């Protein structure tokens, strides 16, 4: 036994206190409390001699007897009070001068007894005698954790088998356990062990669903009743900081926890908390923990990644995303971390990408207009970085206005619905009302029964069911309205693509290989769609030749070839899609553009003795060719 824990140390206390200390060492609750009052009047160097009395009061020997008497709530309640008050007395020492010297070296021995009692009482939880309250036990656990940090003995606690699971059980039992010990523990955990430790804690809480609900409930309780009010309580700010750093900052590393959190409307809470903390950071009153604002804003951005991100984006918009963005720009203290690392990705990637979706444009229409003239000023930014932020915001506003106008046209049914005949030897472009839909695949249209019958015999029969299955699905998080609106955007955008763009793209590809079948890709992955041209060889499945997807691509390639330049495959790439979603046909009202470019390439290569040529040398010819086909591009 450590010398400081020997009961003989009681003889060093003033004679008037020794009998009291002896009775306290035997576990007498009134004397334990009285001893604390008595020693506070002593000099710190004398106070330390009472440590042995508290250590003796935590004697674990009665545990075996209590297991037999576990139905006697009064006895158990008495022992719980002894435990909690003994720990409270230990915590009341003047640490600055005594506890690091005395409690530090002996804490492992004291903790061993504390842990045996806590483990015993926690074991009664699932079969708890009537009238027994474990709140003081879990409160004692929190106090013991604080002692361990005060005396620099945290490793003693963290290495205790089952400690983190019990701490999780404590939080689930009484969420108001006291968050200082809670976040102290997790702020101290380091990778690679951190993830396993947090998982153990979540297991103690009762699993990810229970943990997510507790996180959401706790953070919600920290929101001020008044939107303009501050979070003034230091312990509330500490709680917010601890939970944000442990769970929100690492939720994306644990998909199950992230999914459970997003079901609780955590994005709304984080956005509103970001508004509160942002205002406080700017005013610097009351002071907020360093990095808290950034952590909350990061949690919002993390929600814009992965399946169902559109719903979470719309949720953030309705909760005040744009106010939060402006506050974050003005409160930025570190240009590299805050502006380059968080603000610019939001402005340049997440916001433009969101304007593609019907489900996001609806709340944007109601919320965004008042911010059209807003300015994002970044105190920490240099002139070039500030210009980039300003330009990115202005570009988003222009894009948003354009997309909202398209939404209005879409809802008023003013966007032309053109359809092309799926039979490649025909490929006529007509109004939607003039074509007939295939009842099998539901994605092919025909201008007449004759065209439908011919196509059935020459290829469509083999892939009709495959086309239906492929187009019936939709990416996670995309509503049917989202998909329909994306197609409407595609129609609108495709009609704005100049024949010159297509002509130059065709020339570059055919210049490399005259036999290549080209396709167009409309890439919506980063906001406003970009048009790209490619070759069919990149579309074939490299692993599963002959699989259903490969059959569908082969069928579409065959249609494009047989159309004589009237039909181009086009693909739609959506945000976070690994592969493009949907293979459709882009119809040209006249196949002469393709044939004209092909003839120009052949003539150019003939003059170059079969070698590839520099497209820049044929810009005039390509423009003249494209001018003949103005306003003849259509799609569906």
Describe this entry's structure for a reader:
With 636 residues, the chain is mainly alpha-helical. Among the domains are: 1-192, no CATH class; 429-627, no CATH class. It contains 28 helices and eight strands. The strands form three sheets. Strands 6-5-7-8 form a four-stranded mixed sheet, sandwiched between helices. Strands 1-2 form a two-stranded antiparallel ribbon. Helix 11 runs parallel beside helix 14.
**What does the radius of gyration come to?**
35 Å
Number of helices: 28
Regions with little confidence, pLDDT below 50 for 5+ residues: none
Structural class: mainly alpha
Largest beta sheet: what is the strand line-up?
6-5-7-8
| Terminal CA distance | 84 Å
Biggest β-sheet strands, sense, barrel: 4 strands, mixed
Q: So what's the overall shape?
A: elongated
Residue-averaged pLDDT, rounded?
A: 82
Helix content: 55-70%
The total count of strands amounts to 8
Strand-residue proportion:
5-15%
Overview features:
single chain; 636 residues; mainly alpha; four-stranded mixed sheet; elongated
């Amino acid at each position: 036994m450590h010398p400081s824990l020997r009961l003989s140390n009681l003889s060093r206390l003033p004679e008037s206190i020794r009998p009291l200390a002896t009775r306290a060492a035997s576990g007498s609750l009134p004397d334990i409390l009285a001893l604390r009052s008595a020693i506070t009047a002593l000099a710190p160097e004398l106070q330390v001699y009472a440590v042995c009395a508290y250590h003796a009061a935590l004697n674990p020997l009665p545990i075996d007897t209590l297991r037999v008497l576990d139905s006697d709530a009064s006895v158990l309640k008495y022992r719980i009070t002894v435990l909690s008050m003994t720990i409270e007395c230990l915590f009341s020492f003047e640490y600055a001068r005594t506890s690091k010297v005395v409690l530090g070296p002996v804490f492992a021995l004291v903790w061993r007894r504390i842990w045996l009692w806590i483990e015993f009482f926690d074991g009664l939880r699932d079969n708890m005698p009537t009238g027994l309250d474990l709140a003081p036990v879990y409160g004692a656990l929190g106090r013991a954790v604080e002692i361990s940090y005060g005396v620099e003995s945290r490793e003693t606690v963290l290495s205790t088998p089952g400690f983190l699971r019990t701490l999780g059980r404590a939080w689930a039992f009484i969420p108001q356990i006291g968050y200082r010990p809670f976040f102290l523990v997790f702020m101290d955990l380091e990778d690679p062990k951190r993830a396993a430790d947090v998982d153990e804690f979540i297991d103690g809480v009762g699993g990810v669903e229970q943990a997510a609900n507790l996180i959401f409930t706790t953070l919600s309780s920290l929101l001020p009743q008044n939107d303009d009010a501050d979070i003034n309580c230091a312990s509330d700010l500490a709680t917010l900081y601890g939970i944000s750093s442990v769970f929100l900052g690492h939720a994306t590393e644990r998909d199950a926890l992230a999914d459970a959190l997003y079901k609780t409307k955590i994005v709304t809470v984080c956005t509103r908390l970001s508004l509160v903390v942002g205002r406080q950071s700017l005013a610097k009153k009351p002071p907020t923990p360093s990095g808290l604002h950034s952590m909350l804003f990061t949690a919002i951005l993390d929600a814009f990644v992965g399946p169902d991100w559109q719903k979470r984006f719309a949720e953030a918009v309705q909760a005040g995303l744009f106010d939060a963005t402006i506050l974050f720009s003005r409160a930025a203290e570190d240009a590299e971390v805050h502006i380059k690392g968080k603000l610019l990705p939001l402005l340049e990637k997440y916001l433009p990408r969101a304007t593609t979706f019907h489900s996001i444009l609806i709340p944007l229409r109601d919320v965004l207009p008042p911010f059209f003239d807003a300015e994002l000023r970044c105190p920490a930014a240099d002139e070039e970085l500030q210009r980039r932020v300003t330009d990115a915001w202005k570009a988003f506003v222009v894009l948003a206005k354009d997309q909202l106008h398209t939404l209005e046209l879409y809802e008023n049914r003013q966007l032309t619905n053109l359809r092309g005949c799926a039979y490649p030897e025909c490929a006529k472009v007509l109004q939607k009302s003039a074509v007939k839909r295939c009842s099998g695949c539901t994605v092919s249209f025909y201008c007449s029964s004759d065209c439908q019958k011919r196509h059935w015999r020459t290829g469509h029969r083999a892939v009709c069911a495959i086309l239906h299955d492929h187009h019936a699905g939709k990416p996670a998080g995309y509503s049917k309205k989202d998909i329909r609106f994306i197609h409407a955007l595609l129609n609108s955008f495709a009609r704005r693509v100049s024949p010159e763009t297509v002509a130059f793209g065709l020339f570059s590809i055919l210049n490399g290989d005259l036999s290549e079948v080209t396709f167009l890709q409309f890439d919506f992955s980063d906001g406003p769609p970009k048009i790209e041209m490619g070759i069919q060889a990149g579309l074939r499945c490299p692993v599963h030749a002959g699989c259903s997807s490969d059959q569908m691509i082969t069928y579409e390639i065959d249609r494009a070839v047989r159309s004589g330049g009237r039909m181009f495959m086009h693909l739609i790439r959506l945000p976070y899609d690994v592969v493009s979603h949907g293979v459709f046909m882009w119809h040209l009202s006249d196949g002469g553009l393709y044939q004209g470019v092909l003839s120009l390439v052949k003539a150019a290569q003939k003059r170059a003795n079969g070698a590839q040529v520099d497209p820049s040398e044929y810009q005039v010819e390509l423009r003249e060719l494209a001018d003949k086909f103005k306003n003849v591009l259509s799609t569906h």
